[in-house]
User: Which sequence fits this backbone?
């Protein structure tokens, strides 16, 4: 394995400052993504940050890297296309729970099933922030929002269970109030060969008055402190369901599997973007001959 | 309609009847062979053998398969039109028909032209002599007897092998010889070994010899040039063109009639080094293609109208991000699921209006298989040069029909122009501006991985440096200037693409206006009309966006009579032309029953329009039979068939009705009656008379 030359976090300072609400959990996530990229020694020219739409999806604008700020819910397929086109890029997808677990959940499940070699950081605030406070797929049951004034009667989606059962090979949970750990979790995801999903508690200080910093601070604990082994599939599922007074943070599941890229035969000749365009004359003639 | 010889336009193939006036074909020596059966009967393979044989002999072929959305059963109707000059469409003749089941025999036997032949397995099927038109030969093949020796050598034959015997018979009667067909068999079954090849060649031979002895030839001798031509569908040409132009990424979700692009790409992926991705849905398809485009590879995706509807939001994303990407939209019968396996040109406005907002784009409609190749090759350069989404709009007929094409049409000498791509950028040059406001409107782009060029491709509108202008401080002048920048690209683009030109005589009485696969039908219709004394030329609209409004306006305002010809209900191209030029058509020819237009049908309809004759949309006698067949197949498992059809007026239904007598297939006894409204097509009654206890 090549030696990693770490880069300072300032390397990734973006052209404009974030416009998130003061106190937003996403600041911590941005910083952690920058720290993680530095830890992995990814040059800004080789870092592609892809997002959808939402407060947290504005992140690519605030980091010095290549970015795609795509459509609501479509960050995963855009990132897939970009990574298959140029596997030399390190692709980090960033976005919120509405973007990833609501409108974009179909793509997410399939990307995990394919074990695509990308890292997905979901800033999960259990609310729609940019549209001023409606219930999200991870909003708790009973919670009152603008769209659920009588209380939400849908059960929240469990992103960790979904990720483990869908085929993601690195599944972790972080908290923007635990930046050091979060930076390590994201760095672990970037370094991991395969699909990494990092669900991050990133509190919305404006529209979610329940799932706040104090709410999480009282409940979270670190899996690594308890000698947890993330390689056991069934234990991981069990751990992923843990919720209430104690909520685990850290790598919940990790396994080494072949990636989609490993199996795509055309990529064996190197990244598509570096391959010669067009077809050789003899192949061209073969293609005509087979139709005669 | 065996007795009604004045029907030059075969009623069973026409959604609408035009003039019944005689108009003669003018082009070439030709023969049309039909093969009819159920899905799963393997008739497409038989068609391939026949067509490839002709393609190797130097003849020209155009085939059209009218099929249903079913894997087994239903009705499949393949027509192979063969000529000694370029064949432009599937035509409206039928000189030989191979019927593989009883239903097909009843449907198609009456449609064979005088001098033609009906070929069927006489061991299994019965041909009602009243269904055989005057001057048409019935060639029943006693399969068991014919194949006795072959069976002795190779063992019991599978039912599907009767097709090969029938093809052998056609080869004899259409004077196509056995030699090339045998070589096609050898190539087709090369992977299965000599025994299978010999079996198939023997089957061709016994069919050939039996037909030679028992029937008269249906054509004169051909002169074979032996120029070998590939037999190619529009979708194959699009896929081939894409990889020849350097397409490295193709994404798709299966959907008829676009799936065969995916199949071709997947089958050839490793041969041509293209990454093929079947996605979870069309949202993913287009978004992946755009992601690949941003990362710097030439990418394409393909779908039908329904899948394209899902893609529309992302088309706008490619517009505002200025990403080169090619999207193929193959039209089929709509709306909604519509007619999945039938042709239509009903998606022009969907493609034109795809996505919210305004952005530069290219919409192009290839007109033939050769043109589909050429168009696809060219749009990859345009997409890169002008950094915009390109939509190739095809239709089921163009995409799925195979025809012989001169091999030169698939040229390999292709100049690849990636447009303005920055590969190096010194830090000292200051910040790289991905969306720099330039005179041409084209901003040099950099691919991720290039040092010092970092930028964000954003769906929010942005400034030159790709910083959003949407969130904190919307800057009106920047919004105005970036909009103008994007649209400036269209000025040069319009100059680069060829303007449409009139084809046919300059001083014509009538100008036909069309697009897509209808062009091949219109070209022949114009020839038929001109030969019949109505001098006709035609205008094919290929480049739809950007549009040569000035040139089209000049051409059409000089035309004496302008008639649009489209396979849709609402004459979308005619409306689009009016929007862009202010020019209205003098008449419209439309077909919207799922089947493509045919040349004599178009010629007839044009003559009617010129005479001011109103289009008769009533249910014809033949239509009434078709409607009866539909209900009988659905509810009575084909135990009955329509026989006598009489029109009744005083009946209490408020419109004249067709009274259709139903006859039991097995006994020939009267089995019931059905009444169908002449104007509305309503089924007023459907009485099955008590059948005697069995």
Assistant:
């Amino acid at each position: 394995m090549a030696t990693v030359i770490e880069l300072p976090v300032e390397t990734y300072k973006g052209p404009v400052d974030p416009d998130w609400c003061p106190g937003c959990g996403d600041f911590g996530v941005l910083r952690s993504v920058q720290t993680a990229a530095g830890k992995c020694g990814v040059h800004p020219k080789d870092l592609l940050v892809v997002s959808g739409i939402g407060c947290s999806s504005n992140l690519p604008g605030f980091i010095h890297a290549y970015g795609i700020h795509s459509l609501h819910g479509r960050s995963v397929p855009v990132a897939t296309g970009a990574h298959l086109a140029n596997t030399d890029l390190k692709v980090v997808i960033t976005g919120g729970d509405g973007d990833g677990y609501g409108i974009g959940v179909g793509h997410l499940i399939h990307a995990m099933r394919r074990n695509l070699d990308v890292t997905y950081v979901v800033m999960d605030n259990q609310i729609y922030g940019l549209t001023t406070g409606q219930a999200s797929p991870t909003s708790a049951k009973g919670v009152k929002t603008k769209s659920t004034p009588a209380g939400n009667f849908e059960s929240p989606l469990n992103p960790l269970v979904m990720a483990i059962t869908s085929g993601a090979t690195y599944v972790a949970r972080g908290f923007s109030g635990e930046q050091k750990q979060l930076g390590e979790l994201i760095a672990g995801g970037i370094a991991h060969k395969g699909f990494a999903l990092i669900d991050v508690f990133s509190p919305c200080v404006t529209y979610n008055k329940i799932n706040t910093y104090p709410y999480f601070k009282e409940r979270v604990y670190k899996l690594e402190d308890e000698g947890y082994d993330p390689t056991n599939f069934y234990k991981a599922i069990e751990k992923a369901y843990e919720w209430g007074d104690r909520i685990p943070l850290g790598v919940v599941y990790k396994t080494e599997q072949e990636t989609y890229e490993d199996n795509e035969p055309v990529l064996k000749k190197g990244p598509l973007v570096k391959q010669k365009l067009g077809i050789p004359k003899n192949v061209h003639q073969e293609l005509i001959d087979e139709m005669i | 309609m065996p007795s009604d010889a004045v029907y030059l336009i075969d009623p069973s193939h026409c959604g609408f009847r035009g003039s019944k006036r005689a108009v003669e074909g003018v082009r070439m020596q030709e023969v049309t062979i039909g093969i009819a059966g159920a899905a799963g009967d393997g008739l497409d393979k038989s068609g391939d053998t026949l067509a490839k044989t002709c393609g190797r002999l130097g003849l020209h072929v155009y085939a059209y398969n009218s099929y249903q959305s079913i894997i087994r059963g239903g009705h499949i109707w393949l027509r192979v039109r063969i000529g000694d000059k370029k064949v432009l469409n599937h035509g409206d003749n039928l000189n030989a028909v191979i019927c593989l089941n009883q239903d097909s025999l009843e449907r198609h036997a009456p449609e064979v032209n005088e001098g033609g032949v009906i070929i069927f397995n006489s061991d299994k099927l019965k041909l009602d002599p009243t269904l055989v038109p005057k001057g048409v030969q019935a060639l029943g093949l006693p399969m068991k007897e014919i194949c006795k020796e072959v069976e002795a050598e190779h063992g019991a034959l599978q039912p599907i092998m009767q097709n090969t015997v029938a093809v052998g018979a056609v080869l004899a009667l259409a004077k196509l010889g056995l030699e090339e067909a045998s070589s096609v068999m050898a190539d087709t079954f090369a992977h299965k070994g000599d025994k299978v090849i010999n079996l198939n060649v023997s089957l061709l031979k016994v069919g050939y010899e039996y037909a030679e002895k028992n029937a008269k030839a249906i054509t004169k001798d051909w002169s074979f040039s032996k120029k070998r031509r590939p037999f190619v569908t529009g979708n194959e040409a699009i896929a081939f063109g894409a990889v020849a132009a350097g397409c490295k990424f193709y994404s798709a979700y299966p959907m008829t009639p676009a799936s065969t692009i995916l199949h071709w790409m997947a089958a050839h992926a490793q041969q041509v080094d293209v990454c093929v991705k079947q996605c979870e849905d069309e949202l993913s398809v287009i978004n992946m293609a755009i992601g690949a485009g941003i990362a710097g590879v030439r990418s394409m995706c393909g779908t039908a109208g329904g899948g394209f509807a899902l893609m529309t939001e992302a088309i706008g994303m490619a517009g505002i991000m200025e990403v080169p990407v090619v999207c193929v939209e193959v039209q089929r019968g709509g709306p909604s699921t519509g007619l999945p396996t039938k042709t239509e040109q009903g998606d022009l406005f969907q493609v034109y209006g795809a996505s919210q907002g305004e952005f530069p784009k290219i919409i192009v409609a290839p007109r033939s298989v050769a043109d589909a190749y050429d168009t696809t090759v060219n749009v990859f350069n345009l997409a890169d040069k002008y950094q915009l989404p390109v939509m190739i709009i095809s239709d089921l007929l163009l995409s799925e029909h195979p025809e012989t094409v001169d091999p030169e049409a698939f040229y390999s000498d292709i100049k690849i122009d990636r447009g303005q791509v920055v590969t190096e950028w010194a830090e000292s040059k200051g910040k790289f501006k991905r969306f720099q406001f330039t005179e041409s409107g084209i901003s040099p782009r950099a691919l991720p991985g290039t040092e010092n060029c970092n930028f964000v491709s954003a769906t929010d509108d942005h400034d030159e440096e790709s910083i959003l202008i949407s969130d904190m401080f919307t800057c009106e002048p920047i919004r105005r200037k970036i909009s103008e920048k994007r649209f400036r690209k269209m000025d040069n683009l319009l100059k680069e693409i060829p303007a449409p030109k009139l084809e046919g005589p300059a001083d014509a009485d009538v100008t036909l206006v069309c697009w897509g696969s209808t062009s091949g039908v219109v070209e022949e219709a114009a020839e038929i009309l001109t030969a019949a004394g109505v001098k006709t030329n035609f205008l094919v609209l290929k480049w739809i966006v950007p549009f040569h409004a000035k040139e089209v306006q000049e051409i059409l305002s000089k035309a004496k009579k302008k008639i649009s010809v489209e396979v849709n209900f609402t004459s979308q191209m005619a409306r689009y032309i009016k929007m862009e030029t202010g020019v209205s058509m003098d008449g419209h020819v439309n077909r919207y029953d799922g089947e493509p237009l045919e040349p004599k049908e178009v010629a007839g309809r044009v003559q009617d329009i010129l005479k001011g004759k109103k289009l008769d949309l009533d249910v014809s006698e033949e239509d009434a039979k078709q409607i009866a067949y539909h209900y009988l197949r659905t509810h009575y498992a084909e135990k009955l068939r329509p026989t006598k059809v009489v029109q009744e007026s005083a009946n209490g239904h408020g419109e004249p009705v067709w009274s259709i007598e139903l006859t039991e297939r097995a006994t020939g006894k009267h089995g019931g009656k059905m009444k169908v409204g002449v104007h509305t097509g309503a089924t007023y009654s459907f009485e099955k008379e008590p059948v005697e206890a069995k």
In short: Chain A has a mean pLDDT of 97. The first helix of chain A runs from residue 26 to 39. Chain A has one domain: 9-265.
